[in-house]
Amino acid sequence: MKKNLLLAAVSLIALGAAAPAVAADLAARPYTKAPPAAIAAVYDWSGFYIGINGGGGSAHADWDVVGFGRDGSHDATGGTVGGQIGYRWQSGQFVFGVEGQGNWADFSGSHVGAISGFSNNTKIDSFGLITGQVGYAWNNVLLYVKGGAAVVGTKYDASLAGVSVASANDTRWGGTVGAGLEFGFAQNWSVGVEYDHIFLGGNDRNLTGFGGVLPVHVSQDVDMGLVRLNYKFGGPMIGRY
Hints:
By secondary structure, the chain is mainly beta.
């Protein structure tokens, strides 16, 4: 029994002495670097931008012969193309902006007057919008509303058998409201769709020509749908950890 206990003690001492050498021979555990913190790309709508737009519109025109009554109505429809320039700044998910827009247009239409018997022609050949914007962004998708002032170039003409009898040109001021949806893509570019309504109200004009003077009262409002392409100056995205 004593011999067995002695052998066991010797064995334990030998193992204890050999353990450090065995541990030194084992391969060291490889060092693993912690993965970097994830960075989410967030689109930033802040900055100056410039762009182009195009689409179509319709202006409903009511004609009255002053002192006599309603001479008829028509829709002046057609296409438009133009450009815009503006500035936006973003606070959280809210986006605020100001914008100026100028367009050439060809919204035209006519009807035969119930009182005058003339072909009453209306044409909008240009318009400009000066607006403020308030929007809400989901990263690179922006939904916004806008409102402000509008100026519209119009032409009125009364003709008979295709020959102008009396006409007038007018620059009219009014108000505008609208809404749009814009999508940011490919670095600094964004594309969107927009609806705008222009309030022009009524206006008295004396149409003049070789036929004399025709006093008319014309009421008009304009509805438009536009596709817009913008380029924004500055970096489009920021890093968020």
